[in-house]
Give the backbone structure.
Amino acid sequence: MYNINELMERDYRPAVNPQKNSSYKLTLLVVALKVSVVIICDIFHWFINLFKSSEPENISKKLALVTGGGNGLGRSLCFRLAQEGCDVAVVDIDYKGAFQTASEIQEKYKIICKPYHCDVSDKNAIYKLKNDVEREMRGVDILVNNAGLLYTANFLTSNVEDIERAVKVNTLSQILMTRIFISGMIERKYGRIMSICSITSIVESPTMVTYSATKKGVDGFIKALKEDILVSGNDEFIKLFLVYPDFMHTREEISNVLDAVKHFLPRLSPDRVADDAVNGLIAGKEYIYATDIMPIYYAAKFLTKNAKKHISTSILDSSIFFSGNIKNKTL
Ligand SMILES: *[C@@H]1O[C@H](CO)[C@@H](O)[C@H](O)[C@H]1NC(C)=O
């Protein structure tokens, strides 16, 4: 282990080429044999489990924290979790929105719901949030990393500050929130982390270059974290969930931009996506595709160059995005 800051202060020292130990081939063979046995056992267990019906998890009385819970999908997720009997910490940079969500939930469900103000791209704000939630409520059981900015722009003319903000809010925030909240989950031997990713992390599309990159970052982060948790043995009680929602009607400005796409893109309601996400969570489904047209998205990956061009110039009317005279950014 080393500290990145210390390492950057030092002069670069090239590593010496390691000498291969002569017995390494034997070691490799032994490892390969052992791994084969483990794989056979895993297949056997998987087969046995096929015949067991697994009960959905009871998450009643758990404490869920939802980032970006003031509006849009986050708000729907808060309601849906409250419906399952969770207490909810509604976190948003828009405190008015968080307060509104929390008051409505508090009135409708017999659970405890509190609003919190936090800029989740700021590490100090996250530490403060954790202290406040633990003092006023308790340790978080279910962390829903939802906060994000749908950012559409012509990459070549996009604003550098907007790009930086999108990366911080969409990707950095999820990594920091997870890092800061996971320790308590491991201590308490229970944790569910749900990461809201995007269909655009699976299907790359024009005008969403930065956005796709931020969501692919989230996807890669959670997948790598799964490996880490598995190897450390924490996978028994920490479960990670990736949600890939299709486009939704949320913020007005975003809907206006999507309208420019001639209603070609499907648009789901945030309630529908929240429903898929929470149903997936209690069913223990690690990858949740909240869309009706997944086969079309997969097929789109195999389109030829000219077919892609045809779609983005005729159907999607990308001139709207590339002309530069319509709002070419949406934050
Ligand atoms: C779910 O868990 C809660 C609290 O742990 C308990 O009160 C409730 O009875 C459980 N519900 C079911 C259907 O098992």
